[in-house]
Amino acid sequence: MRAEQIKDKSKRVKVNIVIDELYQCNHSEKFLTSKLSQMSKFILKSIISCHYLLQLKIMRDELRSANASYIIIAGSDKKNFDELKSELHPFTEEDLMNLPRYHALNYVKNVNGYARFITKLPGDASKRKRPSTE
Fold it and tell me: Which of 112, 50, 114 has its CA nearest to residue 83?
């Protein structure tokens, strides 16, 4: 539809499609898997969240071939690290297990290939200082 409606690629705005816990909807993973490799042509990016990569039964291989980025949040099960062990090298399972709260181990696609790094995420929003209204 985007290609029909906006023929000039340079005028297409990047659209992020956020999908939380995809595995809970029957057949949706299979449908999305068939579209993943085509999405970038239409300036679309899917953001898929799950507790375990193993919950994605069909699309794990397709994600790898579609230049996916991964963020593993502190407290994540080591099975997630095992799934991406070769990509995350030189980071180790211990690095993931020792991440402080509100930190993440990242494997992110960029213009030079992939970057591996640890980031500090925003903390608990309910504990942040709010600006004074006085």
Answer: 50
Predicted TM-score (pTM) of the model is 0.78
The residue ranking higher by pLDDT, 41 or 17, is 17
The parent domain of residue 118 ranges over 69-125
Q: Is residue 47 part of a domain?
A: yes
> In this structure, are residues 79 and 54 in contact, taking their beta carbons and an 8 Å threshold?
yes
Are 104 and 71 within 8 A, CB to CB?
yes
Three-state SS sequence of 18-55: EEECHHHCCCHHHHHHHHHHHHHHHCEEEEEECCCHHH
* Per-residue pLDDT at 128 exceeds 90: no
Residue with tokens 């000039």: 8
**How confident is the model over 59-74, as a mean pLDDT?**
86
Instruction: State which of 35, 53, 68 marks the end of a domain.
Output: 68
The residue type at 71: I
Question: How does residue 12 score in pLDDT terms, banded at 50, 70 and 90?
Answer: confident
Cβ-based burial of 35 (10 A; exposed 0-12, middle 13-18, buried ≥19) = middle
